[in-house]
Amino acid sequence: DGTGRSAHQCAYHISEIEKDKLQIDYDYYLSSELFKIIERMCEVVDEIDNEMIAASLGLDIIKHRKLIKKRQTAQFVASFENKWKNVDSLVLSCEDCFEDAEITFIFVVDKNSKIQQLNCNLICPCKKNLMEDEDYFVNSVTKIVEKLITKNEEKWWKCDGLACQYKVKEIDLSKNIEKTCPSCCDNILKISYSDSQFYSQLTFFRNLFDVDKQVKYISSKYRKEAITMVEKYLATFNKVKVLVNDFIQKCDYHWVDLAKIFVDKIERIV
Questions:
Q1: Domain 90-155+193-261 falls under CATH 1.10.10.60
Q2: What is the longest distance spanned by two Cα atoms in the chain?
């Protein structure tokens, strides 16, 4: 209504709008109501970010960018553990000392030092840079992904009882997805490595080498330094990201067949 009052004070009945010829504040509804709903719906889709949603709704990107980035940073940090709680870190073996380097983030801020320092996490404890040999690095990631594929294809089913170690490769799922363990008869057989776990693991690896996403996990004051730190390895990062993404594209879990989801409704309509 042009008064500058709060949103709940500017709410009117439809008859009042028609009588006084008031204008609906579409920007308010798009940014405060629809945006939040669509944001939550698209949260699980890694390819969609909040700026893309805002642009699709016709919102002023410049106006909303600061708020979006502030909220995204908090969400990235807060939701990381929850989103990737069931995935394993990337473990690479050093060629020099043969020790394993466990990688969850590319960048780590050392808060134990007097001056907080940004470190690249792709450094072995023996101080060797794991990115020096590009071929070795790419091949190591490839072998890890291939092992995951084999693990996923084996489809082992295990008893979920802690005391029972029974496992079997094939079970009859024609009647009930939850099958009683034939060994202990008290617990349920569950798949040891599901398609969902496999897909989440691959997605984690892809995000790990997406520098644009990795810098969102650290404070904004370190971001320029972080990008400079790995600038000469960006081509290698992109190579690994594309490699993993190719595997993801071949994963059935990545695709949704709407015909199968709505087949019952379509049949009823017909």
A1: no
A2: 80
